[in-house]
């Protein structure tokens, strides 16, 4: 019969420990993730405002007569 070792130590590699840490971080619902979510919502609102301003400026440009576009380009 084979010699069975009674050493039951578990060895986790560095990659396994990193994976466990990521899983814990994702599912912990900590304050940091709430802060990041709030910051992302703020950035999303700013992007929406910028898109609106770009649309407004594009509309104003399309309403200008062709002669005033030439004058604007010369500046």
Describe the structure.
- This protein has 75 residues and is mostly helical.
- It has a domain at 28-74.
- It is built from three helices and no strands.
- The chain is rod-shaped, with a radius of gyration of 30 Å.
Low-confidence stretches: none
Report the biggest beta sheet as strand number plus sense, adding barrel if it closes.
none
Residue fraction in strands: under 5%
How would you describe the shape? Answer: rod-shaped
- Portion of residues in helices? over 70%
Protein topology:
Blueprint: H1 14-28, H2 31-63, H3 66-74
Which labels suit this protein?
76% helix; mainly alpha; 3 helices; rod-shaped; 75 residues
Quick summary:
The chain is an all-alpha fold and 75 residues long. It contains three helices and no strands. It has helices at 14-28, 31-63, 66-74.
């Amino acid at each position: 019969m084979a010699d069975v070792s009674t050493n039951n130590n578990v060895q986790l590699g560095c990659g396994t420990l990193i994976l466990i840490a990521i899983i814990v971080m994702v599912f912990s619902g900590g304050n940091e993730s709430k802060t990041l979510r709030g910051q992302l919502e703020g950035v999303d609102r700013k992007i929406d405002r910028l898109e609106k301003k770009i649309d407004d400026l594009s509309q104003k440009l399309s309403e200008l007569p062709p002669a005033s576009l030439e004058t604007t380009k010369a500046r």
